[in-house]
Protein 1
Amino acid sequence: PCWQSPPPSWYKVNVDAAVSSTEDRAGIGVLVCNSTGEVMAASICTVIFSRDIEFVEAVAVHNGLQLVMDIGLAPAIIESDSFNVVNLINNKIHSRCEVGWLISDVQEVLSSSESSFQVKFAPRSCNEVAHHLSKLALCNSMEKVWLEEVPTEIAAYVCKDKSL
């Protein structure tokens, strides 16, 4: 499987986290595209890695949701390659203590928003650009947001997804 565009008038938000256990940091990557595959926004940031990968994957979903809300892009489908986090958010499995409060926060934002948002699972092969953004975040110490563009290091992956 590969990246699929969202329905017309919807946005696709791909999110991912990458960890550097030697540095106790995690990189978060977010990519927002419209239904024709054009990049609307991208962001990277780093967070402390507390040895809970599901927590940083939930942070990625939270950051993606926050980004599209901040720039007013809705409705949106948020995709993560963390099966457990997606199932936690969609109430298909019960939350664990470490990640529970963050999942509850995401659920509250989803339910209180006037816009439509969905959170879905996407395998890594459908989430390549977000994965590379999260790796890029590990090389940077500051949060960065791009509007209608991506870092040059990521552009080739965006083009590859659009051509599939």
Protein 2
Amino acid sequence: EINDSEGHPSSSHQTLKGTSKWAVSLENLLEDPEGVKRFREFLKKEFSEENVLFWLACEEFKKTQGKKQMQEKAKEIYMTFLSSKASSQVNVEGQSRLNETILETPHPLMFQKLQDQIFNLMKYDSYSRFLKSDIFLNHKKSEEQEENAPEAQTAAKRASRIYNT
């Protein structure tokens, strides 16, 4: 729990949800499955969905337990995103220095520098465009309509119960 200077619970972050929270930071967006879904939808239209997919794969990789599983996941990430023959190649510096020999001795942070590059690319490039996109703005609008709808629905339900009995 986060407290303010007087020790009271801070509500500034707790009350934000959905698009409001996504608009605060890319980190918030990437922590929300719905946010990731919408961001992917946007990146797909920009032909750069591989960036968020790589970032997500790296996050998943850090949680991988066991050398065998790490080797398999590291190879999958390498072949999908980093190899010169990768199907969804990401554009990162230092990629050429990575070769398949590093896949033999994987460690949780082996892709960290590359992941940071992709994060910064998304943060300073795609993310700001996403916040201005129809995908984001339409989702925000429908979210606001839902927030205002419950009172109207409950009143309508009460009215129908009264008149339909």
Protein 3
Amino acid sequence: MKLLTISPSLDIRFAAVILLVMGLSTPGQAEIVSLDSSNIDDVLNNAGVALVNFYADWCRFSQMLHPIFEEASNIVREEFPDTKQVVFARVDCDQHSDIAQRYRITKYPTLKLFRNGMMMKREYRGQRSVTAIADFIRQQQVDPVKEIHSMEEVNTIDRSKRNIIGYFEKKDSDNYHTYEKVANILRDDCTFLAAFDAVSQPERFSGDNIIYKPMGEGVPDLVYLGSLTNFDLTYAWAQDKCVPLVREITFENGE
């Protein structure tokens, strides 16, 4: 009886094929940033959008979420490769209880959304699935500002909603970038619109400006009188208009 022999060169080629197949079938390394007191402010402040998983290792639901969160991160990173545009991060709340207290985390896992370092009021309460989490991040990348192409459009806006309209000489300006940043943070509370160049000229008699149109017909508009390059002032003014003192509490806005 003859034994089948395989040449050394065939062994090498066979091993190479196996390694190639393994490489193709192995999922990419998830880019999840572990946050602690030394890096959390720097990471979040420099992220356009950050989704943070606050977890505890002993929690079974936290353990179940880990691979889902990592796979969602892989999918999102392929679509948004800029590491400062979207960040997936996590906090071990047992190891970093000070951070958990800072953000009032009382249950695990909790997914919180941050924009430019500011925590959004509404935590992620969607399905804990790869598709749902990835879709949620895609929605956060949609421009919250609708462009107005004629002043006639202003007369047709939905007055059952709170509307803020910005009039700018050009889109690539510090004034508009401040407005856009505010719109991103308050996108769930107000409708934001903007007009540029010749379209906005009739409303720019004193320079770039923004106007709040309250809910209801016949209610007078309110003009922002502060500096548009000052984010804190602009945000405080818009938040005061978009977030009423008395609100209906629902499952989505309970935070």
